């Protein structure tokens, strides 16, 4: 934790995007959320947040998509400041500036990242003295992904994604993030998965997690899997397989590539069929695996090394299958106060 800042010093916070290395989704709960068993990883694609004392709570933004985002209580960053101020019994009088680099509504939790950064930054500014685990508990009130972005690294997420527990991981892993024009609504993608499952057009959770996302993205399930399909209820997400945990401890990206999976992928592709082209282009360019990131529409390619990642990013850009291609490494730390 950072020391409390001086009364008028600005606090600068850097916060990463998140990806899901594996996302198993169960049937919706009574509160509408879907139970998850996921493995998150924080990657080196960052928003930067500056927080300074002010006469009232204010939010300004610049960077990617900044002109489309709310600056009032509709922005999770504002809600994060209000929540922590209430908790500490102080007035939420800060001017927050968000410099956005994480693509919006892209399946990378950019809005959740900013909320995590504001929690960490305001806690430093106000001398709250919360450790990351305590802030992560508070963060769960703001959104399912916010606790992970306080903690960062690589972590398993259960519940609706808000219960996070670090997972040992080697790395660095080399990723290419292919951003798309226009976002996808997260509730809409979850709803689409429910519809596909009701129609038998997407595998239930226990089965979906067995798929190798790189090999079978978006495709119907092969007959060899029918026996498992009959047993799977899809009501509970399936636990993280040992194969993924072992791959994370190993240094071989091919092992990790074989263990990546995302139950939301068929739903994202159903809503945005062009994503198939992006994934195909990633594999054709030499990615070890290509997968939709979270609810999409950003796509992820896992590369063998940094040089391959740069080459894949250039090829995706050249082929016009994404709006921008970013190289990133993971895991990296969660929201961090900069010196
Ligand atoms: O938690 P968060 O506010 O980020 O979730 C946004 C929306 O995504 C929820 O309102 C819900 O529709 C959907 N969601 C879900 N199950 C989850 C996480 C999110 O259905 N585990």
TrEMBL record:
Catalytic activity as recorded in UniProt: 4-CDP-2-C-methyl-D-erythritol + ATP = 4-CDP-2-C-methyl-D-erythritol 2-phosphate + ADP + H(+)
Gene3D superfamilies xref list: 3.30.230.10, GHMP kinase, C-terminal domain
Keywords for the protein's UniProt record, in alphabetical order: ATP-binding, Isoprene biosynthesis, Kinase, Nucleotide-binding, Transferase
UniProt keyword Isomerase, yes or no: no
Enzyme Commission number: 2.7.1.148
Residues in GHMP kinase N-terminal domain copies: 75-153
Active site: 18, 145
Record-linked InterPro entries: GHMP_kinase_C_dom (IPR013750), GHMP_kinase_C_sf (IPR036554), GHMP_kinase_N_dom (IPR006204), IspE (IPR004424), Ribosomal_Su5_D2-typ_SF (IPR020568), Ribsml_uS5_D2-typ_fold_subgr (IPR014721)
Pathway(s) the chain acts in: Isoprenoid biosynthesis; isopentenyl diphosphate biosynthesis via DXP pathway; isopentenyl diphosphate from 1-deoxy-D-xylulose 5-phosphate: step 3/6
One of the GO BP terms on file: terpenoid biosynthetic process
Binding-site list for ATP: 103-113
GO function term, MF aspect, one: ATP binding
Residue stretches making up the GHMP kinase C-terminal domain: 245-320
Keyword Nucleotide-binding included in the entry's annotation: yes
Function description: Catalyzes the phosphorylation of the position 2 hydroxy group of 4-diphosphocytidyl-2C-methyl-D-erythritol.
HAMAP family, A to Z: IspE (MF_00061)
Family in the record: Belongs to the GHMP kinase family. IspE subfamily.
Annotated protein name in UniProt: 4-diphosphocytidyl-2-C-methyl-D-erythritol kinase
Organism the protein comes from: Actinocatenispora comari
């Amino acid at each position: 934790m950072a020391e409390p800042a001086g009364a008028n010093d600005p606090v600068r916070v850097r916060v990463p995007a998140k990806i899901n290395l594996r996302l198993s989704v169960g049937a919706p709960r009574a509160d509408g959320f879907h139970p998850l068993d996921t493995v998150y990883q924080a990657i080196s694609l960052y928003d930067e947040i500056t927080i300074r004392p002010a006469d009232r709570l204010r939010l300004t933004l610049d960077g990617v998509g900044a002109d489309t985002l709310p600056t009032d209580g509709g922005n999770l960053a504002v809600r994060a400041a209000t929540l922590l101020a209430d908790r500490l019994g102080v007035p939420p009088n800060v001017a927050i500036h968000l410099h956005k680099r994480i693509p919006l509504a892209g399946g990378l939790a950019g809005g959740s990242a900013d909320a995590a950064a504001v929690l960490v930054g305001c806690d430093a500014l106000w001398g709250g003295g919360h450790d990351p685990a305590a802030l992560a508990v508070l963060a769960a009130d703001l959104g399912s992904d916010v606790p992970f972005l306080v903690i960062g690294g690589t972590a398993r997420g259960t519940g609706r994604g808000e219960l996070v527990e670090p997972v040992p991981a080697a790395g660095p892993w080399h990723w290419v993030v292919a951003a798309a024009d226009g976002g996808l609504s997260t509730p809409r993608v979850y709803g689409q998965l429910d519809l596909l499952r009701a129609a038998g057009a997407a595998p239930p959770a226990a089965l979906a997690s067995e798929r190798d996302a790189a090999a079978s993205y978006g495709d119907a399930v092969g007959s060899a899997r029918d026996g498992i399909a009959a047993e799977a209820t899809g009501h509970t997400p399936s636990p993280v397989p040992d194969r993924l945990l072992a791959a994370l401890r190993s240094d071989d990206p091919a092992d990790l590539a074989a263990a990546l999976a995302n139950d939301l992928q068929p739903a994202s592709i159903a809503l945005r069929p062009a994503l198939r082209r992006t994934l195909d282009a990633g594999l054709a360019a030499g990615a070890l695996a290509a997968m939709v990131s979270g609810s999409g529409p950003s796509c992820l390619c896992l590369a063998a090394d940094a040089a391959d990642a740069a080459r894949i990013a250039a090829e995706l850009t050249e082929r016009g299958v994404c709006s921008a291609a970013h190289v990133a490494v993971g895991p990296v730390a969660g929201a961090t106060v900069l010196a």
